[in-house]
Amino acid sequence: MKSKLLIVSIFLTTLSAIAQDRTDDRRQMMEDRIESMKIAHITKALDLTTEEAKSFWPVYNEYQKEMKALRKDHGPKGHADKPEDLSDSEIEKRLEERFADEQKMLDIRKKYLKSFKEVLPIRKVSMLYRAEHDFKRKVIDELRKKRE
User: Residue 141: which domain range?
Assistant: First the structure.
């Protein structure tokens, strides 16, 4: 009896691991697809020449890596709890943490503004930020449509 229970337990654990791997694979495929769409969107919006693209994408990829690391390390805070469930000191602490994270993001953006200006005309740098915003809006709208 114990051996049957052990076998069933191992089987269920294996199934769970396989299901998690599939979920992770799907998530990675979706992230890769979105990233490819983002690259195409930005390239088109900025009308990058071949030379500009060669210089721009390595800088942009580093910028994205830093922003992603910051979001990962300092992910959403305080979104799960309602303010009425927190003490005033907890609310204040979360707000200060949020502002600190936003400042770090701003610092990264300022840092890379200098780098982007070295590889693109300022007009295209400005267009980059608009293209990023438009792409995020587009993805959010698509996700909302799928949920409906």
Answer: 2-147
Residues in Cβ contact with 117 at an 8 Å cutoff, skipping those fewer than 6 apart: 125
Q: What is the pTM of this model?
A: 0.72
What length is written for the chain? 148
Q: Read off the tokens for 54.
A: 């060669």
- Mean pLDDT, residues 40-63: 94
Spatial contact of 101 and 74, defined as CB atoms under 8 Å apart: yes
Q: How far is CA 23 from the centre of its chain?
A: 18
Is the Cβ–Cβ distance between 59 and 115 less than 8 Å? yes
Q: What is the pLDDT of residues 80-90, one digit of tens each?
A: 577 778 888 99
- Residues 124/44, Cβ–Cβ less than 8 Å: no
* CA angle (39 as vertex; 37, 43 as ends), nearest 5: 120
Residues 6+ apart with CB under 8 A from 83: 91
**What's the number of domains the chain is made of?**
1
Backbone angles phi, psi at 74, to 5 degrees: -125, 50
